[in-house]
TrEMBL record:
Domain of life of the organism encoding this protein: Bacteria
Protein name: TetR/AcrR family transcriptional regulator
Pfam families per record: TetR_C_1 (PF02909), TetR_N (PF00440)
Sequence ranges assigned to domain HTH tetR-type in this UniProt record: 24-84
PANTHER family for this protein: HTH-TYPE TRANSCRIPTIONAL REGULATOR RUTR, TRANSCRIPTIONAL REGULATORY PROTEIN
InterPro entries found in the cross-reference section: Homeodomain-like_sf (IPR009057), HTH-type_TetR-like_transc_reg (IPR050109), HTH_TetR (IPR001647), Repressor_TetR_C (IPR004111), Tet_transcr_reg_TetR-rel_C_sf (IPR036271)
Family matches, as SUPFAM superfamilies: Homeodomain-like (SSF46689), Tetracyclin repressor-like, C-terminal domain (SSF48498)
Length: 246
């Protein structure tokens, strides 16, 4: 697998350009500009020309620092993640460690949820991605799980976190577009279901409607995240201890 030029630059394995149309331009400035554009206008607006305009340089000037837009997108995802939480100390509870790891990743992704629409083209090679993988594995160090099982566990947690953040961002976009609150949308959804379903065909949904479940304030995103993470950790605990949780 060939290592992209920008990855080598990020790891300090290749010198960065020292000369160019604008000496104050750096790779960090380019990534910061890309984050500003993405936060303001979404991923479709993140183009080399748009970023160049943001920095008041020519588009060609960017290519002295970033070989392609694909490389830039890798740099963006690494910048969004930032460094992982502090590594656990020997003897720390593995459940607490994995939960903190997931919660810190959630917070990082929530700062730029649009970045989740960047296609995943392969395993992460950037410095922060690798640091997060190391931190996650450290959390599982004392579990006795096999190395491949540890990686599978991290992928499971990572997928849950990404889905939670993306779903919440999509729902917020839907609320903003419809100009209704979450409670109003759910209540309207319940009324629509009540008009459409047959109690004999959909008895479980009918029970929810009878209980007016869609009219009640639901749990918040933090509660839903905690519920999902605890269930995942319960499942991993079965592998660690060899028995289901009490």
């Amino acid at each position: 697998m060939e290592v992209p030029e920008s990855v080598e630059i990020a790891w300090g394995l290749r010198e960065r350009p020292g000369k160019g149309p604008k000496r104050t331009l750096t790779l960090e400035h380019i990534v910061e500009a890309a984050l500003r554009v993405g936060s303001a206008e979404g991923l479709p607006a993140v183009s080399m020309s748009k970023i160049a305009a943001e920095l008041d340089v020519s588009t060609m000037a960017l290519y002295r620092y970033v070989a392609s837009k694909g490389d830039l997108l890798m740099l963006i995802t690494d910048a969004v993640l930032g460094p992982p939480p502090p590594l656990p100390e020997p003897g720390d509870d593995w459940r607490d460690g994995v939960y903190r790891w997931a919660d810190a990743m959630r917070a990082a992704l929530q700062s730029h949820p649009w970045s989740l629409r960047i296609p995943i083209t392969g395993p992460g090679l950037m410095p922060n991605h690798v640091a997060w993988m190391e931190a996650g594995l450290r959390c599982l160090r004392g579990t006795g799980l096999a190395p491949d099982t540890k990686m599978a566990a991290l992928l499971l947690v990572n997928g849950f976190v990404r889905t939670e953040v993306a779903l919440l961002a999509d729902l917020r976009d839907a609320f903003d577009a419809s100009k209704v609150t979450e409670e109003e949308m759910l209540s309207g959804y319940g009324r629509s279901l009540a008009r459409l379903i047959d109690a004999q065909r959909f008895p479980e949904i009918h029970e929810l409607l009878e209980a007016r479940a869609f009219d009640m304030p639901g749990s918040g995103p933090d509660d839903e995240f905690a519920f999902g993470m605890e269930r995942i950790l319960d499942g991993l605990a079965v592998l660690v201890t060899g028995k289901p949780p009490a």
